[in-house]
Write the structure tokens for this entry.
Amino acid sequence: MSKKKPEQQPPKSSDRQVLPPLGAHIRKMRKNRGYSSMDDFAIKKNLGISWYGDIERGNIDIQFTTLDRIVKGLGLTYEEFFKGF
């Protein structure tokens, strides 16, 4: 029996306050690490381009494991990633 991926739920209204700043921070950190293209980063880190774009725009809530992939994909520690957030 294969596991079905849960469908992404739209963010709750309380989440909407944190998601855009988090997405903007991810974008800033990506650019600071030399990835000028969101698409190139998503492809190199095996993330869906459209899905990753929604993350940077703060349109969707993400799981911690996804944030972990992004932080590690940027070659950062959590301390470095969250500094200034």
The chain has a mean pLDDT of 89.
